[in-house]
Amino acid sequence: MANLTTEYMGLKLKNPIIVGASSLTANLQTIREIENSGASALVAKSLFEEQIQLERYQDELVRESVNERHAEMITVFPEMKDIGPNEHLYWLKKTKEIVKIPVIGSLNAVTKEIWFDYAQRMAETGIDGLELNFYSVPKDFSISGASIEEEQIQILKELTSKLTIPISVKLSSNYTNPLHVIKEMSKTGIAGLVIFNRFFQPDINIDTLQHSFPFNLSRPQDNRTTLRYTGLLSQEINTNICSSGGIFNASDVIKMILAGADAVQIVSVLYRHGISHINKILSDLEAWMDKKGFDSISDFQASMNRKNSKDPWAYTRAQYAKLLMKPHLLKKDPQDI
Ligand SMILES: Cc1cc2nc3c(=O)[nH]c(=O)nc-3n(C[C@H](O)[C@H](O)[C@H](O)COP(=O)(O)O)c2cc1C
Predict the structure, then answer these.
(1) Would you tell me how many other CB atoms lie within 10 Å of the CB of residue 13?
(2) Which among 281, 279, 225 has a CA at the least distance from the CA of 248?
């Protein structure tokens, strides 16, 4: 029987399947189900700066000043429970008591003060690691990408020097050069990188002429950007990589590991097929490893990243140009039909 153990953020995991931050990890019953279905770890639902600010300042004026972002966040993660930071910290402690698998906290802050204060408070709840969620939707035309990146790297440097628990960063793929910024981040002492987050995008209802915010879960085809960057990054950085976004079945997990992932995070598939789907992914992964004669994850991990692949151009622009010039090489994907 294949050995599925892996290591992520310095944590020894019994397999590579982690359940990502979502409402599924903010509910007593579902976190029990997550553990019983075989997940190796879970990331608790994020604590957002807006929750903290709202509790801190009850007066109406301050409410107004944070309302815009608060409203944005509620639409970004529609099922976000509007609880305060103290309840959130209590919830983290409770989660640690309820499950035996590692629990990773998740913080989504904006201001430096909140990053430092709450990262520390969350660490004190006994969680096994902390995932930092850099969420920056550009809306200010005057701020350069470089200055946002520099600020994020500074926050990481300070947090890794202050906290004693392992820290990971969950990133957007929307950097001009994700390879550069991720490499710089990996030098700050972080223990894990989650590539990539998926943000809810607004829509417009043309009948009511109102904005709408669909509960848009990932689709299987969505994992290809993640696969590309996993394959490009894993040859170059020493920080553990957790691939995420549109991972639906064992084949997706296997591809990510072949490209160099240490673990994966899943969310949408569990909303679509139920939490017990974790069992199926694990048994299919094990069956594939047995069939291929792989005894452990390390037997095939990163064997198809850019450096180790027989086709090192697969992840690059050269491949893109080749395929567009020779479209007969493009294969139809049954999922696209
Ligand atoms: C309902 C829902 C709630 C989510 N809440 C959070 C959250 O609180 N914090 C966070 O970092 N990501 C959150 N996410 C994003 C997921 O953790 C994950 O990064 C994203 O959905 C991509 O993985 P997937 O394709 O497997 O869904 C949420 C996603 C969904 C669908």
Answers:
(1) 21
(2) 281
CATH of domain 6-310: 3.20.20.70
Element (H, E) at 17: strand 17-19
Ligand 1, residue 244: give the atom nearest the CA: 23
Q: Please choose from 18, 19, 77, 252 the residue to mutate so as to test ligand 1's pocket, defined by most ligand atoms within 8 A of CB.
A: 77
Q: Which DSSP string corresponds to 263-278?
A: EEEE-HHHHHH-TTHH
CA distance 73 to 50: 8
Cβ neighbours of residue 122 closer than 8 Å, sequence gap 6 or more: 47, 89, 92, 105, 107, 130
pTM of the model: 0.89
pLDDT in tens, 8-61: 999 999 999 999 999 999 999 999 999 999 999 999 999 988 888 776 654 444
Cβ–ligand 1 contact at 121 (below 6 Å)? no
Instruction: Dump pLDDT digits (tens) for 107-127.
Output: 999 888 989 999 999 999 999
| Residue with the larger pLDDT of the pair 88 and 199 | 88
What are the domain boundaries of the chain?
6-310
Q: Give CA angle at 101 (97, 104), nearest 5°.
A: 85
